[in-house]
């Protein structure tokens, strides 16, 4: 499980650009709060090797799945709290629940900086939840 700005990151596959090469189906982690993206640590070595080889060969596009050995999504994302396959509203609810739990801890520790960060995160997540609810209502 990976965290970014205190939120648990969502496991998914995406396309990353390395210099001029687009690499598709890369296992990544995505932060729902600040939108940071990072290559999943279990695929990081293969990604770096593939990216360098593809760039040196002048390839404009490659598919990570074709070159990754023995990496399947279930194994890679089993330690993620949420994955892209879940309903977006459920992901946001889980993120809010975790942030509220952390807020309780931060208040008990009297860590005002952390409390402030968590309140900002909760505000972002609440806005996202409101937008998802409105979208589902239409």
Describe this structure in words.
The protein is an alpha/beta fold and 138 residues long. 51% of the residues lie in helices and 22% in strands. The strands form two sheets. Strands 3, 4, 5, 6 and 7 form a five-stranded mixed sheet that branches. Strands 1-2 form a two-stranded antiparallel ribbon. Strand 4 (21-30) and strand 5 form a beta hairpin. Helix 4 (88-108) packs antiparallel against helix 5 (112-137). The longest helix is centred in the C-terminal third of the chain and has 26 residues, at 112-137. The protein is elongated and about 55 Å long.
Sheet having the most strands: 5 strands, mixed
| Fraction in helix | 40-55%
Q: Would you tell me the overall average pLDDT?
A: 86
Q: In whole angstroms, how far apart are the ends?
A: 34 Å
Task: Indicate the proportion of strand residues.
Answer: 15-25%
SSE order: EEEEEHEHHEHH
Determine the oligomeric state from the structure.
single chain
Structural class: alpha/beta
Silhouette: elongated
Based on CA atoms alone, the radius of gyration comes out at 18 Å
Number of strands: 7
């Amino acid at each position: 499980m990976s965290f970014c700005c205190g939120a648990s990151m969502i496991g998914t596959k995406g396309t990353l650009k390395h210099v001029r090469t687009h690499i598709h189906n890369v296992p990544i982690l995505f932060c729902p709060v600040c939108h940071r993206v990072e290559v999943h640590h279990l695929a990081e070595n293969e990604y770096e090797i593939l990216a360098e080889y593809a760039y040196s060969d002048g390839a404009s596009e490659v598919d990570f799945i074709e070159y990754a050995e023995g990496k399947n999504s279930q194994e890679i994302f089993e330690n993620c709290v949420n994955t892209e396959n879940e309903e977006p509203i459920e992901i946001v609810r889980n993120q809010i629940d975790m942030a509220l739990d952390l807020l309780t801890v931060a208040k008990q520790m009297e860590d005002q900086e952390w409390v402030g960060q968590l309140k900002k995160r909760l505000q972002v997540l609440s806005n996202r939840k409101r937008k998802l609810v409105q979208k589902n209502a239409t």
